Batch of 2 targets.
Target 1
Amino acid sequence: MNIYVLVKRTFDTEEKIVLNGGAIQEDGAEFIINPYDEYAIEEAIQVRDAQGGEVTVVTIGGEDAEKQLRTALAMGADKAVLINTEDDVEDLDQYSVAHILSEYLKDKDADLILGGNVAIDGGSGQVGPRLAELLGINYVTTITNLEIDSDTVKIVRDVEGDSEVIETSLPLLVTAQQGLNEPRYPSLPGIMKAKKKPLEELELDDLDIDEDDVEAKTETVEIFLPAEKEAGRVLQGELKDQVKELVQLLHTEAKVI
Amino acid sequence: MSKKVLVLGEVREGSLRNVSFEAIAAGKTIADGGEVVGVLIGDSVENVSSEMIQYGADRVITVEHPHLKQYTSDGFSQAFMACVDAEQPEAIVFGHTALGKDLSPKIASKLQSGLISDVTKIEGEGEDAVFIRPIYSGKAFEKVKVKEGVLFITIRPNNIAPLEKDESRTGEVSSQAVDITNLRTVIKEVVRKASEGVDLSEAKVIIAGGRGVKSEEGFKPLQDLATLLGGAVGASRGACDADYCDYSLQIGQTGKVVTPDLYIACGISGAIQHLAGMSNSKIIVAINKDPEANIFKVADYGIIGDLFEVVPMLIEEFKTILVNA
C-alpha cells in the first residue's frame, strides 16, 4: 500500500504567543509535529505494518521543518519529503497549500493519504478535504477508527460527539481525530535509523508550479492578542454562603442564568 | 457594492440549528443591501424554510432528494453546487459545525476560492468587511480579508448574534432539482453519544470536569447540573487521558474550542492548553480545592472547595432561582 501522511510543524502547545512588530515571535519557541498529525503518522505506520507498503511523510515549509520530518521517520515512516517554499512565496493560504500538495501527489498513485483533522496553529482544517477534491478522491474527516479489508474501508468518524460508522473504498484521504490511536514515541534505534532514511527536498520549480498559480486567495491584515483577562473574585465565607452568592451573581450581575 | 449571499441552513432532527440564524445575520452584514438567499439540503426540509425567512433570509432554495437524507460530502456538494450554478453568488456563509467544516473546503476547492474558517466576528460591512478568527486555539486572533474570488466564510456557533425573529416576514421558497450520483461514502450507522442532544460547540452553558472529578461516576453531578441548566458537559485533557470520559468531550488546544455564556470548571487546574480552549467564554466560574490553581487567574468567580460538595449545593441553589424565575 502506497501511503502518504501530511505533516505540519507547529508551535508546542505549551508556548505562549508573543507578538513582535505585528507578527508572532518564533525565536526561542519550541516546535512540534502538529498533535493531530501524530495520530495520522501512527495510523499510517500501523496500516503499513498490517498491509505492507511504504509510508511517506510530506510537509510544506522551510528548512526548520526537517526536524519534524526526522521525528516522523524515527517513529517509523519510510521516506520524507520537504517542499521548501521559503525562497519562493511569502504567504500561503489553504488554497495555496492544497494546490502545491496536489501537484506533488497527482502522479504518486497514493492509496491512502492521512493528515490531522486540524492544525493547532491556523486551525482551519481545510487542507485535507481541499486536497482530496483536487486529486478527485474521496475523503472522510475526524476519524477515530480505520479498518482496511482489501478494497473496503470501514471507518468510525466523530461528529460532534456522536459516532458515524461509514463504509467507503480506496483511494481515500482521511483526517485524524483524537482517540484514533496512541502515537508512539521514537525509540533510540528508530532515531538512529531515521538519520539514514531518505529525505527529499523539493522547490516549487521541481513541481513545475508557477508562483502566481499558488498565490493566496485570502490575506491576514492583522494579528492581535486577546485582552488580558483580569483575575476575578474568589468568594469568601462559609461554603454554603459562597454557593448562594455565586448563583446570585450569575443571575443578577453576570445575567447568564 | 452589494453582494448576493448564499447561506446554508443546517437541519438537525427536523429543526434548524441556531448557528444557521447566526449565519443569516452574518450574511446580511456581508450582503450590504444585497440579497441573502437561504439554502436547505435534505430529504425533507421545506417545512423550516419559513423560519429562515423570519430570521432574515430574503428567499429560500430547497434541494430535496432521497439520497440527501444523511449528510455526505459527495451528496451535499452536488446539491449546493447546483444552487451556486443557478444563483452565481458573490459570497457564501456556512456554520463552522461538523458538517460545515467537512463540506466547506470541498466547495471552496470546486470554486477555486479562498475560505475564511471559524469566524467569530465581522468588522465593517460589504466591501470593507474584515473577518476575525482565532488562531493558536484562541491564544491569538487574526483579521483576514479575501483578495479575490468568492467571499466564503464559516462562522463559529455562539459568537455572531442572530437577528430578531420577525414572524411577519415573507419570501419566495423555490426548489432546485438535482441529480445525486456517485456517492462514495455509505453511512451504516450513527451512534449517539452526545449529552442530551446539546452540542458542546453550541452550548450556552458548559460544566467541565478535570482530574479532580476522579472517576467516570464523578461526572454524574456535573451532568445533573448541565441538564438542569440546559447545557453540556465538557472535560480537560487530564480527565480524558485518565479515561473518566470520552475524548469527544475534550476542551482545549487539542480538542474543542468553546465560547459559552457560562463555563463552570470543576476540578480543573487550568493548564495553558486547556485555557486556550475556553478562556474566551463570557463568564468563567472555577471550583477547585487548590487555591493556587491556574484556573482562578481566568475565572470571573472562584470557589475554593471540593467540587463534590459544591456542585450538589449549586444544583439546589439553581433550582431555587429557576423556580422563582
Target 2
Amino acid sequence: MSEEVEIRDAEARAAAARVADYEHGWSSEIEQEFAPKGLSEDTVRFISAKKEEPEWMLEWRLKAYRYWLTMETPDWAKLNIPPIDYQDAYYYAAPKQKDKLQSLDEVDPEILRVYEKLGIPIEEQKVLAGVEGARKVAVDAVFDSVSVATTFRKELEDAGVIFRSISEAIREFPELVKKWLGKVVPMHDNYFAALNCAVFSDGTFVYVPEGVRCPMELSTYFRINAENTGQFERTLIVADKGAYVSYLEGCTAPQRDENQLHAAVVELVTLDDAEIKYSTVQNWYPGDAEGKGGIYNFVTKRALCQGKNSKVSWTQVETGSAITWKYPSCVLNGENSVGEFYSVAVTNNYQQADTGTKMIHNGKGSRSTIISKGISAGRSDNTYRGLVRVAPQAEGVRNFTQCDSLLLGDQCGAHTVPYIEVRNPSATIEHEATTSKISDDQLFYAMQRGLDQESAVALIVNGFAKEVLQQLPMEFAVEAQKLLGISLEGSVG
Amino acid sequence: MSLLNIENLSNAIGDKAILKGLSLSINAGEIHAIMGPNGAGKSTLAYTLGGRPGYDVTGGSVEFDGKDLLELEPHERAAAGLFLGFQYPVEIPGVSNLQFLRESLNNQRKARGQEALSGGEFIRLAKEKAGLLSLDMEMLKRPVNVGFSGGEKKRNEMVQMGILDPKLAILDETDSGLDIDALRVVGHGINSIMRKPDKAVLLITHYQRLLDYVQPDFVHVLAAGRIVKSGGPELALELEREGYAHIVEAEGASA
C-alpha cells in the first residue's frame, strides 16, 4: 500500500470521526488495492486485467472508452451538476484478497463487521451465520467493487439459476453474457453508460432458465467504501421463457467530504411469459445539511420485455445521493407485455433528484403503470421526468401514470415533467398529478395523539408513499419506512 | 387535589388577544362543561391546552397532574394524559387508524417508561374500545378519517380516546354534526371511558343537548376570553332557555 493511500485513509478516518450524524457515515479500515489515478486506456486495461477478462471483453471496454471520449455530459435534466474531473478519481479499488475464499468464515472479519453496521436484516444475518432453517435470501455481497462472498450458490445451481458476480460470469459463461451485455443499454446510449462500459469493476449476473421460478429472493448490498473511488456497477439479469425472479438491491455509503461518482448500469431481459421484479432502496450519502459532499448518482436502468406476456416491475425508494439522475425504464416489445414503475424519491437539504421512467410501447396490447411519489424538503429540488411512447404498430396500448408530490417547508421544489408521445390512436393513456403539503393540522393532530414531531412526519410521509412501499418485499418495506423518517429528520419546525 | 389548574391564562394568536385571564380548576372524577357564544375563545382554550403552535401563551399558568403543562411539547402533554377531541378531526391518507393509534399509544407508553404493546395486545384493546362505541373494526383499518362521515369522525375520536386512555379529555364540540343516535353513542362512550374517579372531562359545546347524555358536575360560561359564570347543570338549561347574551350582559363581561 502506498504512502499516499495510507494518508488518504487516515484522512478518511478523521473525517468519519468528525461527522457522526449520518448513520452510515463512517469509514472502515480495509486494505485497498487501487488502480492508478485517472482515466485512460491504461486504466481500462488495468481493470480488465485485474478481472482476468477475455480479450473480447477488453476490446468491448476500449471501444466504449473511445466512444465516451467523444461524448458530452447530458444537460437536459433539472440538475445543477458541478464539473467532474474524471482524472481526479480512482476507477478501481478491491479489498486485498489473500486467497480464494471458499466460505464466509474466510471473509475478512472487518468486512463482516461492516455488514453488521449496515444493519443487514436479521434474516440475512442468520443466513450468513449459517443458522438452520433461516429464510432463504441469497446475498451476493458486493463490498466496494469485488464480490467477497456468494451464498446459496449450490441451491440456486440445483434450480439451474446462475447467480454470479459479473466478472465471474464473464469468465464462466462468456456466451450467455456476450449475448445480452449491452443489448438493453447499448454502450453509446448515454455518457454515463459509456463510462460504465469502459470501467465497470463489478456487479451481478443472474440467469433464470426456462420455466424456473427462482427459489429465493436475490439481494445484493452495494457499498462504496473508498475515497475518490467511483463506483461502476454492472448488473445483467436474464429471465428465460416462463421464468421468475425477484431481485433486491440496497445501497449505503459512508460519510465523505468529497463528492463521489456513481454510474451504474442495470440491464434486465424477459423472454416470453417471464417476470422480473427489481427493488431498490438507495441510501447513499446525500451530503451534509449545507450541501457539502454526497454521492453523484448517474444510473442507467432499463428492461427489455422482449417476450409476449413478459413483465418487469421496478420499485425504487430513493433517499440518498446529492444528485440522482435515474430513469428505470421498460422497452415493451413483447405482445401484451407489462411494465411497472413504482417510485418514492425523497430530497432534503440541498439534494437534487431528477428521476422517473420511460415506457416504450412497441408491442401490441402492452400495458404500463407508473406511480411516482416525490417528497421534497429543505432547499432540495425533486423532479419527476417520464416518457410514455406508443409506437405506430402498437395496437391497444394502455398506460396509467400517477405523479404525486409532497412538500415540506417553503424552500423546496417539486416538478413534474411528463412526456407523452402516442403514434397509435387506439392507445389509452391516463396521467394524474397532485401536489400537496404536510399541513400544520395533520402535524398537530398526530402530535396530540402522542407522536413526537419526527415520528409524526415519518408517519404522514409513509402514508403518502404507501402505494409504492407496499410493492416492496416485506423486509425491505420495513427498512424503507425507517429510511423515509431518517431522511427527513430536521426538515420541519 | 385538582387534576387541571388554570390560573389567569392569557394568550394571543398573532397580535390578537383571545384568552384574557381565564381561571379554571378541575378535579379528578369531575366532568366540566364550557359553553359560550361564537368567538368566545372555546376552541382557542382547547388548542392552547393541547400546545398547538401559534397559540402563544402571554400570561398565567397551567398545572396538569402536578406538571407545568405549558413547559411540555404537544406529544409530551399527550403522554402526560391529556387528550384533545378535535372539532374537525384531521385526515391522514395512507395511514390506517390502527397503525396511527398503535404508534401513538406506544410512543406515549415509551415516554412514560412502559413496555410497548404487542400487535396482538393492541388489536384486543382496539376491538374492545371499538365495540364500546359501535364502531366497525373495518373502519379502524381504513386510513385515519379519510372518507369518514362527520359522525364517524367523531366516533373515531372517541375510540381513540378509549384506546389512549387519558386522564383528562378536552372534547371540542364533539357533539357538532351528530344525529341523535350518534349523539347517544358518543355520550355513552364518554361516560363509560371517562366517568371514573381518577379521570376528568372538559366538554366544550354550544348546546345543551350533549349534556342530556353526559351529565356535567359543573357548567361554565366562557365569554370574551374569560369564564364569566359557573354553576351546576342547571346553568346549561338556563343558557338554553335564555341565550348567552342575557348572562354575558348580566355578568358585565366585555372585551
